[in-house]
Structures are given as structure tokens and as C-alpha cells.
Amino acid sequence: MATEIDGEPLRKLGLKYPLIVAPMAGGPSTPALVIAASAAGALGSIGAAYSSPAAIVEFANKVGQRTDKPFAINLFIPHATPTVDPAAVGRAIAATAGYRAELDLPTPQFSAPFEEDFDAQFEAVLRIRPAVFSFVFGLLSADHTKAARKAGILLIGTATAPEEAQALEDSGVDAITLQGLEAGGHRGIFEPDAADPEIVLRDLLAQCTGKVRVPLIAAGGIMTAADIRAALAAGAQAVQMGTAFLATSEAGTSAPYRSELDAPKRKTRTTRVFSGRLARGIENRFMEEMTPKMDAVMPFPAQNKFTRDLRGASAAKGSAAFLSLWAGAGEGELWQGSTSELIGSLFAG
Q1: Which of 4, 214, 276, 293 has the fewest CB atoms found within 10 Å of its own CB?
Q2: Contact 92/298 with Cβ under 8 angstroms?
Q3: Is 114 in contact with 49 (CB distance < 8 Å)?
Q4: Torsion angle of alpha carbons 78, 7, 218, 60, nearest 10°?
Q5: Span 228-249, pLDDT tens digits
Q6: Which ranges in 234-284 belong to alpha helices (H)?
Q7: Can you name the residues that pair with 159 across neighbouring β-strands?
Q8: Is 331 in contact with 226 (CB distance < 8 Å)?
Q9: pTM score, whole prediction
């Protein structure tokens, strides 16, 4: 398989393979995974959306101490803080009271802020100066874009529809990750409450190739060497893979999460019940039981903060019942060896 990235400015990264290992915030992305991915010739990504500025710097320092290869840092583009009235909080608490009792958790004392301060996170990124800053959920402001340019950082945005891709190109990004409906984790849809365009990767590539001038990175359901070849043949200059790396030895994926990934058939769908934003994951008890109670699900990022204790306690008890089991729609057994061996197998021959 041809391994050289076809398209500036991605070629400037000097990668051996046209592969980005996806940023997987909240556990799976570890320094070891990023180091292994970048050292093997791909682009490792730090999923830093939930991290404080100090934690981002600490993570990046650990990576930088072990490899001089390029890596990316990924953040969520912020939106206006949602209005969450006491009645909405009350409905959410009532709907999850039984789960918290089951997990020996107290009633949460819930209030804003619901997420990290983006400007402070971005300042940390500028201090680190990674090769790439990638982002989801919208456009980077002109001021942030200018600051990244001054620091020599390449910018990769995320689109789920041709209109989003065009807006990203117009904003001045260097490349665009086209996230097909099959992709695991949060959908990169710009507006938090918008309906999913539900465009599969093949169609999204077809709709953007030849119309969007910056390099395109294919993401969504890519699991094998054949999947990579198909995406590159369809017009992508590189691919981004996340689910395929969740069971590697370097991933920070919890034991109950790994167990669900190892099931013979992974049944995934998109849901808002964990974070308030659409995200694809393996169906489990919390997803099934909360879906009929959407009036008790708060908007993003409030819901994400609200369910954090449930997810943490579930993992601690070895149960997948209340975990956000983010995974794509791709099928097949997951590689359980090293990241470098997986990357080598994907580009062998």
C-alpha cells in the first residue's frame, strides 16, 4: 500500500503512514498510546477536551519526553453555556436516583461551570506548540486561528456534512476530518442540538472530494487495511482511526469497556443520554433505559458533567452498565497487541 501522504500541508508532518490515531478523551488516550502511535509513523492525538490546562501540559510533556515525532492535541469548540433551570436538574436527578443508589453514590450537587475554559486550554496548547491542533463541534475563531498560525501549528477541523467542510475551509484550516455516520464517539456536528445529517463516510467523501480544496481525512468505521485503501482511493489523503486502537496494550480503556468491545457482535447507535450531544457507542443498560426519558436529559455539556460520577463508579465496580462505551460501527475483532504492531499490520505489503 502506498504510504506517503498525498497533499500539503499534511506532508510537512513527515509521517510514515497516512494515519491519525483518533483523540479519545476520557480514558483511552494515554501518553503511551500517543507515543506509540507517533513513534510508529502515524500521528498520535491527545484527547484533551476534558483536561485542565495544567493536565494538558503534563500529558504533552510525558509524550515529548519519549518521542520527538509530531503529535496532535484535540479540543472541543465551545458554544454558549446552556440554560439549565432547577426543574431540568430535578428531572435528571429523579431519573437517575436509582442508579446512584445502586452504585452507592450521593445525590449530586450540580451547578455550572459544566466544562473546562477553552481559552485557558488553548493557551496551554500554544505553549506546548504541538505539530497539530485538531478540533470538533464548529469553527475556530479568527483570533485563535491567527495565534495557531503564529505558533506554527497546523489546524484540522471536523465536518459531518459538506456545508460544515466548506465553512471549515473558508475559515482557514489546513485539513478537514470528514466524520462519517459510522464513527464512534461524539459526532462533530457544529450545533449541539442539531439533527444528525446521517451521511455515511463513503457519501461524505464523494460529496466533498473535488469541491473542498484542503486535504481530507476519512473517519468512521475504518478498521482494516482494505478500509484504508478504499478511503484513500475515494479521495482521502489520510484516515483517522479510533475504535481499532481501543483494545491495544497502550490504550487506557477500562476492563469492563474492553469486555464489551470483545463481544462477538458490537451493536452501536448514537445517543444523547451520556453527554447531551449525539455520540455513537455500544448499547448498554443506561442507554436503553434513559432513551425513553429524554426530558430528563440535560443539554451538552451539562449532561456530560452530570453523568460523570455514574460512569466513574460503574468502571470502578467493573460494570459496563453505566459507561459511555464509545465505538464505531466497524465490525471484527479488535487488535489486543501493541499499537506499533497494529499500525505495521495495517500498512504491510
Answers
A1: 4
A2: yes
A3: no
A4: -50
A5: 999 999 999 999 999 999 999 9
A6: 255-261
A7: 178
A8: no
A9: 0.96
